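Hi support team,

I submitted a single chain yesterday and got back a structure, but I'm not sure I'm reading the token output correctly. Could someone confirm the output below corresponds to the sequence I sent? I've pasted both exactly as they appear in my results page.

Thanks,
R.
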Amino acid sequence: MNNNKLNIALIKFSALGDLAMIEPYIKLLTQKYNLTLVTSKIGYEYYKDIDNLNFILINNKNSILENIVTFFKLYSFDKIIDLQGNDRSKILTFTKKNNLYSNYVKSYFIKNLKCNLIKEKSNFHLYVYSILNEFISDEELVKNNSFKERTPNYIVLNCGSSEKWKSKRLPIEKWSQISEILYNKYKLPFYLTGDSSEVKYLKELSKYIKGEYQIFAGKTSLIELKQILKNAYLTISTDSAAMHISSVYGTPTIGLFGATNWLRSAPFGSWSTVVYDKKYFKDNIPLEKNSREVDNKFYENINIEEALEKIDKYL
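Hi R., thanks for writing in. Yes, this is the structure output for that exact sequence:
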């Protein structure tokens, strides 16, 4: 540990998508500070391949006593950044108010905040950046996340979602249409990604994919999934961790939205974009609350070609 650098603890337990979204900031912070990530087991599994990053693990079911033990570990840090903002993280940080940077950020505070890689003012990334802009600059973020030209090798289709969020899944015929457009345009094979709970769904869906494909769902570790997404030519994904992983690694990424809020969860970087059904969402405003109701009307008129045009210069 470099004793000339500030010792910073950053708190983020879950969920996997949100953990992935903060990777560009984690990597930059580790270059400038002695950074310790206070996280869950899944956070450790996701970030264990990052150099110069220390960990304090906390179980989501920890008792108050176990949280207090973690609090004493945190007490010696120069600064604490709370990107979780729940009761548990507030318990851990309640005596560090003078050195605490919290994700409770009022809209007027970020109204005029700008970052070249962050396009939407209501985007999750803007809120994170509003907390971290004392520690990292826009220039540093851009320098560390520049786009690199990619080899036309394969396209990732991340079609599924957890059982809890089946509402994020597009109708199978829509995936057939998307794959046909992509295959006609790029003539590349498809890699279908997901976790073990999505294998059955993806095997059924794969019957309607136009072009060559391989199913990787349930066959990869988190680190292996990151490599697949990092090396892809293009990723098309539902609102999911895979979408965020892909975008933070500089892969051109199109997020497909309907049941969830694309303003909050848009993928990272100018090489990424979102697409939603503009006939259903006539005012370009997402649902007031994310919906778990499976409703194919969210996705009937999604136009993938419109999204491809937006990121055409990266392909």
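A quick pointer for reading it: The radius of gyration is 20 Å. Let us know if anything else looks off.

Best,
Support desk
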